[in-house]
Amino acid sequence: MGTSLKIRIILLCVGLVLLTSMASLVSFWWSTSHFNERQVQQDLKVAQNVYQQYLKAKERLL
Known about the structure:
The protein has 62 residues and is mainly alpha-helical. Helices cover 97% and strands 0% of the residues. The longest helix has 60 residues, at 2-61.
């Protein structure tokens, strides 16, 4: 009976470690995903501004 309790406690601890690891992984993935999305949006704004400046400069030269 003592061995069964010991095994249950070990399995509980292993399960909690796995659950914590998965929660940490999901949190990291979510954070990275949102950071990358914001970075892409910022890069697109910069590219649009550069393109608009290019077009205005080209118009001035014509």
